[in-house]
Amino acid sequence: QVQLVESGGGLVQPGGSLRLSCEASGIIFSLNAMGWYRQAPGKERELVATISMSGRPNYADSLKGRFTVSRDDAKNTVYLQMNSLKPEDTAVYYCHVPRGPGYWGQGTQVTVTS
Q: Which of 17, 46, 45 is closest to 110 using CA atoms?
């Protein structure tokens, strides 16, 4: 079955950086677009970034310039580099593959606080 396992979340100060990873199994990774979403307390889940099979990224307008999505097909892994983090970036970050019914990882918590 499809499994998505996120890692790399944690506690960081404002202005800091984190890199999230999502390793996929149960799919032919190179033939799938991948996405990152986030959900803050009391808010709906929102798109952070997607990356196509060919590596073309797409970002939420509010995050352009601070976040970078990339993929390593040899490792079946998609990454999210987050720089200049702000307290409002605090959320659970989820990996997503839009295949069939859509699949989600379990999420990784990112907390930005001084």
A: 17
